[in-house]
Each structure stands twice: as C-alpha cells, then as structure tokens.
## 1
Amino acid sequence: MSEPADVWILSVPARNPAEAETFSAWLETACDASPVEVELVDQALIWLEAYFEEETPAKLMNYALQDAFPGVESVVRHCGAKDWTTFWQHHFHPIGIGKSLFILPEWLRDKTEIPEDREVILINPGLSFGTGSHFTTHFCLEMIDRLHAQGFKPDHMLDAGCGSAILSIAARKFGWDNILAVDFDEMALEQAAENLLLNDIHDGVTLEVKDLTRTWFDKKYPLLAANLYGGLLMELAPKLVRACSGTMILSGIRTIEADAVATIFGQLGAIEKVCEADHEWCGMLLDCSGCH
C-alpha cells in the first residue's frame, strides 16, 4: 500500500437538499469527481466536500465556485495525511451486507472477528469512495449478493463509476469474471488497483479511465452496475440500456429523482424489479433483457 498523502478539502455548505443538488451537479462537472455529502449532527446545513491532492487546484476550484454562486460560504482546508487516515478510521467500520458479504477496513483486519460463511472485502478508500456504509453503495452490494444467492453468474460485467472498485471486488469474490471497472478519476482507479491487490485479486477485473459522457462501449453486458447520480443516469439512459443485455443496477439517485429516473428507463423498455430507498437516496434493479 502507498503511504497516505496530504489532502485539501473544498467544503461547500447548502441550506437545503435542492441547493445541495445544485452544488453537487456543478462540482461533478467542474471537478470531474462526485462530491461527498457529510451529515453533521445538530447542524441544519448540508455539507458537500470535494477532495484534492494539491492546494492550488482546490483554491482555484473554490474561486470558480464562488464566481458561479455569489455568496456561497465555501472554504478550503488542509487535512494532513495522519488526519485523513484518522478521518476514515472514525467514519468507516466493518459491516455485513446481505447473506454473504463482510466489508472490512484494511486497518482493522487483525482486530476484527470475521463472521463465518461470508466473503471478506478489504477496503482502504484513499481519495476514492465506496465503502458500503452509504446507502448507494450498500444497495449495489446488496443486489450483487442477492443475484449471487439466486445462482446468477454473468460472463461479463460493467462497473460504471467504480470508485474504490468495491462492487467489482464483490463480484470477483463470487467467482464472476471478465469485469470492466471504469471511472473518469485516475486517482480513484489508482486506489481501486490497490484495493484489488489487498483482496488478492490479480485477474478477472480490468480498470479503465473513461468519461462516460464522451466515450462508450462496444460490448453488451449481462450485468451493468452504475452507481453515479440521478442527473447523469438520466443523461446516459439510452446508452446504458443499449449496453445492457440483462440486469442493470442503478444507484446514486436521490429519492426526489426516483420517479423521473424510473420513467426514463421505463420508456426505453427497462422493467423495474426492485426499488429501495431511505429518506434521501434510492436504488433500482432493472431487467433490460427485452430492450433490444
């Protein structure tokens, strides 16, 4: 594992979910990375955070944000390597998902009793995200676990927006092969590669830098997982449906967007099989086998 590096954090306060969605979409486009939503106890504000390896890009992004949204009280703060590691150690804990998965922070592997009959996924998030603790990732892992329990074993899989590669690792642990995991963030893929090695995965998963808004795929995939965000899923819907010959897992959808996302994919022929949500986020399992 590489040594942790210092991080500069752009923190953006939002007064309500609609404002948070606006800021999130802007940061998604400007940073080429999804901001993280941080919930603080006893605070009415919603905080969005974007993470940078260098100070100058973080400050330039803050200036651009304040030009685009005059009056926003965004700030850039430095987080040392030790503090960043401590952040994850406080916010990321072992978690069992479904009947067969157990997500374990890499730094706790010698201190945690592993449940029997579960596949252990070791994760060190680094600057990428996807630990299983957030509803969006948890839902995707739950769907992969359910499909495995049903005997599903696709000969190809696409993990679109793979982040830490946790979905691909889960799939590979179940013996699935020919997995393509893509993300537009090179830093995320570097961490994904380390997570694959952490889990002793040396083949079966291919990592690729890809901007889904600009380039696409020649193959069709019997399983396609897209943990992105609602607006991007709706924009990419025709391409996603064309790329999927069977089952599609969608997540990163805010509950207020769920009907719109379901309508767009339904109009393209996808059949909703599962839709689950918490108070803020939603995920869907779709059957796309009849879309072609």
## 2
Amino acid sequence: MIYRLQSLYISLVILINGLFTFVFPLWIDNYKKTLFVWQGFKSQHNLVVSMAVCFFLVVVIAVISLFLFKKRKSQFMLNRLNLIINLYLLGVLLFYLLNLSGEIYISKKGIAAFFPILNIFLLAMANKAIKKDEALVKSVDRLR
C-alpha cells in the first residue's frame, strides 16, 4: 500500500533529489559561477558527470522502489542500492567541496551538498519501516 510510512520517506527522497537539486546549487566557485546538478551533465570532468548521473539514478531507483510496495524485499534491496549510490555521491561531493579553490575569493558551498546525507537518513528510516512491516506480516502468517 502506497500510504505506508516508508512510502513517505521514499517520496521525500524523490522530492529532494528530483526538485530541490534544480533549485539549489551544489557550489559557487570563486569566479561567481554556480554549478547545479543538471549542469553536471555538460561538464568536462568525469567525477562531476558521475555525480549528476548519481543524482539522476537516485531519483529513478526511488521511484521504482516507491511503486514496489507489494514486494517488500525488492523494495528493501533497491533502497540499499540507493544508499550505496548516495554514499558514493557523498564521497565525490566531499572530495570536490574540500578541493574547491578559494585563493583570493572564498567559494561558497551550496545546500545541495547536504542532500545525500539527508537521503541516507531517509532511506535508512524507510528500510527500518520496511523491516517492521515484514516482521508484522510474518507474525500474522504464524497465527494462520
């Protein structure tokens, strides 16, 4: 059923990565150039392109996971895959944000760099709710 608690968490992941990454920049470099996630597809750097692909993959996997509410084990595994992608994304973002040049001007980090941390938390909470549902179904099956 789509009205469960894990569906709310997964919907928040979709909202955060699907909508907010187009609104909030990842960073603003020292030349006052802002970089949004969707601009990462046009970049010359492989890590920036992989970062944009990962943001896109997180949304696609979360949408698939949202509609697999009848198959809790598949939903759980897709959320784990999504967690791994978010951990990679967090690592790449930290690498870039720590290596931004700020010699004369100070570069600004965008709030979108915080999104993978929030996604990891939401996906962990969704997996916890899925485990709770699975335990409830198993306990009902024992009674039959």
## 3
Amino acid sequence: MHKQGFETSYLDEVLSRVTDPKKLTSYPKCIDGYCACLGDRPVEYSPYKPRKWESSGLEVRVNPELMLTIRRVRYAVKLYFKAEPIPQGAIAPMLRMIEMSVPKSLKAKPAIIDLQHSRMHTRNELDPSLDALLKAEAASFAVLWDALE
C-alpha cells in the first residue's frame, strides 16, 4: 500500500479479497488499529531489508516490516498482529533489538505497532544496558539448543 502510494482505504479492498476465516476475524481489527495509529498524517515509505543480530553463535533475523517517515521522523516499524497486547516487559528489548539492527546511517527510530490495540510503541532513548540482557538470553538459548542436538 505505502510502496504504491495508496491511501489507507486501500486496505478495505485488500480485506474484501480475504477468504481465510481466521484472517477475517483478526484483519478488520488490525486494519482499524493501523489506520488509527497513522491517523491522517502523511506517510512516506522507504524500502528496507531484514538485518541480522548475532550473539553467542545465535543469529536472529530482525525484520521491521516497514520503514516509514511520519511528520519528518523516520521509523523502522515492526507490526504486532496478536490479539493479546505486547507484554510490557517485551517492548523495550524488542525496540532495542530493532535499534541495534538498523544501520545508524538510516537515522530511524525503532517502533512497534500493536495493530489490534491501536498503539504505536516508541522510545526516544533506549537503555543500552538491555544489551546485556539480550546477550544473556542469546547465550542461554544457544546452550539449550546445543544440549538438544
């Protein structure tokens, strides 16, 4: 939609082609939440490809789905589709991982849009001490994974 320069009303057309019953249950709420987060603000799309974050031999694909500029601020946006709200304790680590994976040259703030709850999560400054937590989680997972092999 953004890539083609269409308005958010285009999402209604997309919805009209959906036949999967599970998607028909969640998509309308996701579309409403997305439109509510963007409001009537003009949005500029930029292409973006997934990056990798590595620690302790663990490689994580970090994939913000969108790179959007809203009111002259560029955001690397991860879309959250689940019906349950994002756990509060997961927001900052998710934002930090996005922040670390997006090249600084892009000057993009990390963001998560909780589609079903019409909420865009951002932080002006993320706590770099989260890096230790992320590295510890990666090391723990790597040890467990190796034990299973």
